[in-house]
Amino acid sequence: MSGFRLADGGLIDRSRPLKFTFDGKAYTGYAGDTLASALLANGVRLFGRSFKYHRPRGVLSAGHEEPNALVELREGARREPNVKATAVELYDGLVARSQNRWPSLAFDAMAVNGLLKPIFSAGFYYKTFMWPASFWEKLYEPVIRRAAGLGRASGVEDPDTYERSNAFCDVLVVGAGPAGLMAALTAARAGADVILCEDQPRVGGQLLSDREFIDGRPAPEWAVSAAAELAALPNVRIMLRTTVTAAFDGCFAALERVSDHYPEPSAFQPRQRFWRIVAKRTILAAGSTERPLAFPDNDRPGIMLSSAVRTYLNRFGVAAGRVAAIYTSTDDGWLTARDFLRAGLTPVVLVDTRASAPAAFADVAKAVPIMLEGAVLGTEGAKGLSAIIVAAGGAQKRFEVDALAVSGGFNPAIQLASHFGGKPSWSENISAFLAGGTAQGVEPAGAAAGVFGLAEIFAEAAAAGAACAAAQGFAAPAPKLPTVAQTSTAGSLAAWRPNPAKDGKIFVDFQHDVTASDVVLAHREGYRSVEHLKRYTTLGMATEQGRTANISALAMMAQLTGRTIPETGVTLARPPVVPLALGAVAGDHRRGAFRPVRETAIHALSSEAGAPFVDVGQWKRPQYFPIPEDADLAATAAREVETVRTRVGVTDVSTLGKIEVLGADAGVFLDRVCATRASAIRPGRCGYFVMLREDGFMMDDGMIARFAPDHFLVYASTAHAASVYRHMLFCRQALWPELDVNLAAVTDGWAQFAIAGPRSPAVVQALVDAPRAITRTVFPPMSAAELTICDGVPARLCALSFSGERAFEVAVPAGYGAALFRRILDVGAAYGIAPYGSEAMGVMRIEKGHPAGSEINGQTTAYDLGLARALSKDKDHIGRVLSARPALNDRKRARLVGLTPLDPNDRLRAGAHVVETGVAPSAASDLGWLSSAAWSPTLRSFIALGFVSGGPDRLGDEVRIFDPVRGGDCAARIVAPCFYDPNGERPRV
Amino acid sequence: MTFSGFQLLRNALNGGTGWTPHWRKAEPKPAYDVVIVGGGGHGLATAHYLAKDFGVNNVAVIEKGWIGSGNAGRNTTIIRSNYLLPGNIPFYELGMKLWEGLEQDLNYNAMVSQRGVLNLCHSDAQRDAFARRGNAMRLHGVDAELIDREAVRGMAPYLDFDNARFPIIGGLVQRRGGTARHDAVVWGYARAADKRGVDIIENCEATGLRSEGGKIVGVETTKGFVGANRVGLSVAGNSSRVAALADMRLPIETYALQAFVTESIKPLIDCVVTFGAGHFYISQSDKGSLVFGGDLDPFPSYAQRGSLHVFSDVAENAMAVMPMLGRLRILRSWGGVMDMSMDGSPIIDATPIEGLFFNGGWCYGGFKATPAAGFCFAHLIAKGEPHQAAAPFRLDRFATGRVIDEKGVGATPNLH
């Protein structure tokens, strides 16, 4: 005996049958079904197994509150675990499997856990598996991990795509049930921009589940016409299959399930779209969730929430069973009894925990055997319900049934309001928590506000819609309220009757198998705060987020401690309201689009030339320009270095940060930001700068070019370009807004190339427009000019050297970059030019001892880097005071030195540590580390820059280079950090 | 009661009626030798070690809510000692050793799981920085391995090795690192401290710190005045507010950090994995949930909730490194409130008020530090001088310049 499809009725399309499989068996449903309704219609009762005891479980609900009917949906890379069958729209070809069972759903060997239940109580893990200590990772934990978990992830990349999008409105209405529709109508008619989000594929909410009549028509028809009116308004957007799932300060997040009702997304459609919605006001009309009742063996397949039974009857045309009973503490059970009667099924008994029958249900009382002040004492059935034992008036009675509808009251869906941190308040009236306060313009309406009668819902929702519109200046006309028959679902919380012999079978959290006896144990062991109860027993942490579990457990704890429910406390709902796929939240920021790729003007040219690229922040920089004659990339780097050192090379330095500083106070500004005196740089010249952080540590160093008295250009390092600009903006805007200075980051606006080597002046001379001469006297090192090159292309030229050779940096608007690079190679051919990459540039800067990103790493000071003398002593600047702190000027600090291996072929690697020789390497003998290292083709030796405690005082000392994580260990000597042309003569020749 | 196989069996047979509260619901006595303000992991660990190792048993821990209601229960449960700087390594390694013996010490299974911590690197420069860190760890006697891309693939084949924006080139592994069950750490310390006579007083908020002549004499609370010879503040997340009760201004700013769990799934991710080209860390709990987090919310806040752009950013990071996560669902997210110090490192020190001690400024790192912070704070309170491993964590380091800036971003608390 089990559920079946009624001969007619329901909002399904019986002309469109859909085929699907569950655990390999083929079934047929109809368009409009959920997976759960279709399986129930096919007589399936057993949907899954519980988390811990592997108890057989069926369907409890008809929505996102489902704790039991979880399945693995789809196959292969699209397999998705823990999908609630009650929230899956059926489509043709759907494939679902049961999960967390072995070998099969019907026979699950892990059900043996149920026999060990007396041991596996709440908190069991904390008391055991400690002996012997080493067995935890080796034995106990692996076993526990394998047994735990629910469904299986696909384990491979999700083939579907996702999008993110933004929307804005005056009034956001969450939920298109009676309250949401009425509120949206009122606000929209007044002229407010309205977004109406509905989780389901159709509007109507609870109206789809009940046999109400509105204005004389069946309620779903009224919902359709209300939606049609809304859809016709230009200021309304209705978003179906869209769940507003999280509230943040200033916005909401919503998930639109664009393609989940298809086997796979159609071409160019995402699977889901993640919305950020900014609304001035929000009406929370998300309805409510029914609570089950606590009684022994209340988890058998066939036991279902009363409102869900009605949803299956009225919306899907499916009866939950052939012989049904009802157990209720609210009027909702009576509504369900009435709908059963209308469907031609007479419940065998209606058990109400209350003392008197509700007056409005005289028809039900006449047709169905009623037991007042009754209780279900137990249930029977191996893999599904077969009988219930009922007590009333001192007698016990057994009824053979295959379905039991239960109703323990309703929890308003206030989660979104709770996301703002508002503490829910207990309503004695409806025995449930309501949203506390009206956080950030969120106004609950309808069942979400604890209002259950349809007439009141319409009246209050209309008033809420009007108020939201009016608050933004839209006068709402007096709402036309539909006429409805008065209904009620008043009810009270049923008391739990503690019974040590049975409590272990009263399930409170169905999915996690938390029982009344676990609540008793938590109480006994002192876990009485509701948060402790939750954490100790795992109550409410299941995939339904405690919707069906929390209040029952709270009521039990209140009873045990002799406190009221509000005194016992409540847990705050945390985002999201409905679990949210990570892929959807990430949107299209995936794979290569995770972060922007920054390419320089010569990216394509470099790529054609076969250059490998290196990631530097978001930039891609060409690392080498190999030619066929190079034995390997090391040979390429050596050849490129030699080219620069003996002839001329060209490299792309566009990634350097370029910050324009303009205005009458530009020099004053830079003098304060920089530790060096920028204002002393004359127009037409460049100067070295050092920038300190507020705390006195190095921020960056580089060059500043001055093109005019009120125009400087700061060249920040690639690594620090963004943070330097941010810092400068902060200084300008927050520290010294009175200065007449403006900043602009133009890094991407200019392509810039370094032309370096003894023959570089001739190459540059061939580029610049006449009559400018590039000679040692006319354009000496550190000159800067704005000029034209290549017949009128605006350019900036600086005589700067990073390589240690005579060199120039020429910049043109980025659009000319590729052409200029080709031109440089063309005109340079006569001088033996070759392009060089970031690797050769790095080798040359190490040979010259210039600090770069691994030296200026945020932990080093100008003193450490040997730059203390560059700091100007006669002016104030950022970082001046704190850079004088004693520990920052300690001679024993790890300070910059050069290191050369005693055997030039001993490989040095950055990251190796420098330790004393002659003693065992240890923390005590640790002197410092290597920050940069390279093979120097010029010196024919490995060389390194590093930081050594008191290093500059120990030049010539022998130390040990210790690199245990890479197996490196060799002897080296401390030397001065500049290995090549220490007096800097070459750029001047 | 001591947990044992015998007790388990006995209670399985008698319906669990033999179990007793894990800690007494104590009410404050008029005075104690030591009052610890803050019943989080750190405060309770401090009380435990005071009683167990330093012979100070007349101790109260006062907690404004329920124990463990702050950051002890709002973290991603990772434990590790894979630090770079000599100021940090000995401290976190002391913590690691205490973690390794925690269950036996507490007679409570906190599920300390040494599943390994794998930090991914994505550039040569980052690999070299990892080498420097790994070498520093080895020099301090801490386990560290630098592994290449293929070895990473062996440990975590599901990472994006083919289409990543930032390719994985290797990783730094600390096999002794892992996770622990955060709530159980709190309860285990509470139970062990209670057993040694410590009063744990919940729902008791400190409303004032009373001192006379520059010396602390007790704590004003919502349950009345509680006298104390020495008072330890262990209220990370609220440090600035509580220190203000003693007119102290701390080098700390307060920010929210979000964390996330997915629905429970069968074993998928074995060790702790961190992504080096963004900021993302993930592990899988014994229950089957993936637990992960990313960057701080960048603006100061005491609200225990986060903002959408960080929420999204964390998901982007997740997808960048583990594209298989796309269809798995975030079940819950929450915000913890972080004491962000000016150098990203904590403070365990005496204060200008005699007898008043401070433990805070834990930034992201408070959970893993729980045992070491408790032990060192107990040492400081009992002996009046810092434990050697925590000696660098002084308040005056910002004046002297002896800062411990692991990340190298300076006095910018929201970037640590």
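qc> Chain A has six domains: 13-128, 162-288+412-470, 292-408, 501-574, 598-655+749-844, 657-748.
qc> done
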